[in-house]
């Protein structure tokens, strides 16, 4: 199991970000993060010597933001979508 950072300000490589998010149940491949860095829609990152670095807190917030609230049935998706 990958180490999950306890400091939200720690910077992680794309591979480490993928590993840490996956360890928490947010399965995301390194290639997916790379694609989202090109096309948009991924967590914010910085470049250091040409290499992407993700702030752990930003990556975790991004993953949580894509997660729906708990549901009791599939029909709740229609109700939540209409409420937005």
TrEMBL record:
Q: What is this protein called?
A: DNA-binding protein
List the top taxonomic levels of the source: Bacteria, Pseudomonadati, Pseudomonadota, Alphaproteobacteria, Acetobacterales
Q: Which domain of life is it from?
A: Bacteria
| Location of region: Disordered | 64-84
**Which residue windows does the record flag with biased composition (Basic and acidic residues)?**
73-84
């Amino acid at each position: 199991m990958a180490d999950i950072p306890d400091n939200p300000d720690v910077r992680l490589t794309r591979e480490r970000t993928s590993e840490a998010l996956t360890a928490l149940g947010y399965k995301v491949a390194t290639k997916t993060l790379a694609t989202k860095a090109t096309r948009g829609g991924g967590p914010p990152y910085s470049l250091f010597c040409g290499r992407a670095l993700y702030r752990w807190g930003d990556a975790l917030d991004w993953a949580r933001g894509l997660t729906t609230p708990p549901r009791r049935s599939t029909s709740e998706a229609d109700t939540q979508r209409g409420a937005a």
